[in-house]
Amino acid sequence: MSRQHIEIRQTFNAPVETIFNLLTDHESFGKVISTKIKRVVDSPGENKNGVGSVRRVSSFPVPAFEETVVTFKPDRLMEYVVSKGSPIKNHKGRMEFSEVGGRTHLFYTIDYDPRLPFIFLSSVLKQAIENPMRKSLEKLARQYTM
Asked: Fewer Cβ in 10 A, N or C end of the chain?
C-alpha cells in the first residue's frame, strides 16, 4: 500500500504567535477541527504542549488514539507522531509557520501508511482526514479577516 501525503496551505490575517499558539495548544486545536482532543501528558519543557506532550484524539467512529509532540519550535514548527492506537501507521504531522507582513502562513503536512487492505478504502480514509481539516482551517482563517 502506498504512503499517503496530505498538504494544506492556509494564510491567516493574524500574527504568527496568535495562530501558532492556537493550533499547537491541544485543546484549542481540537475546538478548531471540531474533534475531542485532550492533553494527557504535559511536556517537561517550558510549554506544556511542547516536546514530549501527548494528546488523546477521540473522533467517532474511529477509536481514540494518541499523538506525541516530537518537535516544538515556538512560532515556527511543531511535529507530532501517532504513538498509540489509530487506523493508520507511521503517521507524522508537521505544522510549519511563517509570518510576512503580519500575516501567518501555515504549511501543514500529514504523512502516513494506511492499514486498510483496499486502495479504494485508503483514498476514502485520506479524504476523511483531509477534507474536514482543510475546511476547519479555512473557517478559522475567515475569523481573522481584515
From this structure: C
